[in-house]
Amino acid sequence: MENLGDADTVEAQSKAILMENDIRDEEFSEEVIKCLPLEKDTWTIPDEEFSKRLDLRQQCIFTIDPATARDLDDALSCEQLANGHYKVGVHIADVSYFVREQTPLDTEAAQRTTSVYLVERVIPMLPRLLCDRLCSLNPDEDRLTYSVIWTMNEQGDILDEQFTRSIIRSCVKLSYDHAQDIIEHPDKQFQSNDLPSITNNFTVNDITRTVLQLYKISKALRSKRAGALTLNQPKLQYQMKADTKIP
């Protein structure tokens, strides 16, 4: 028997939900934290990783996520080649570099299974140092990734593909609203203040062109898709009161 507090509070109700579903929400142990780089504030990618990975830091690569996203775990790129084909890349944060097999961190993540999203907070599967910092594909920061790169024609036919560990440097953090605005207004002359800060010597035109190229290819791929299931359900979002944390 455990007293969870006043039943009318969000905190008590959340605790009850977590207990009922056997979800752990305690802090990560010191043993788990010790699996992460000790120099977390000054950690940089070791030199040997540059010799083993494809260096994509000079390419126009960026993230597209909800406006409130903190952990940016995937990024996109699209380059039109001289022959009219496209080189499309999906770049995923390489968490495996930090989560080594059979370590306390690996065991803890396996037990937690997944991150759990409540209305007022998130219970992470991995320490925030990894999710928000070391592995988050933040703009203008070198990050370890695993990339899949396809060479495609305008019809979306895959002509070549490459799977490789890589290093990227995202040039901008776009929200879904930014990308949708570009898609809905392809002829608009976007200005620098229409989008978040862009780094790595890329411009607003570079970003809008890439988004439109990706959208063009996505339409070609969807037109060829057979037997796909589309789950276009509404998603509730909440604004939280700062003092009470009540939605």
From TrEMBL:
Question: What's one GO BP annotation on this UniProt entry?
Answer: mRNA catabolic process
Name assigned to this protein: RNB domain-containing protein
Q: Which InterPro entries match?
A: NA-bd_OB-fold, RNase_II/R, RNR_Ribonuclease
Q: Where is the RNB domain?
A: 53-245
Question: Which Gene Ontology molecular function entries are recorded, alphabetically?
Answer: 3'-5'-RNA exonuclease activity; RNA binding
Supply the SUPFAM superfamilies for this chain: Nucleic acid-binding proteins
User: May I ask which residue range the UniProt record assigns to the signal sequence?
Assistant: none
A GO CC annotation recorded here is: P-body
**What does the organism's lineage look like at the top?**
Eukaryota, Metazoa, Spiralia, Gnathifera, Rotifera
Entry superkingdom:
Eukaryota
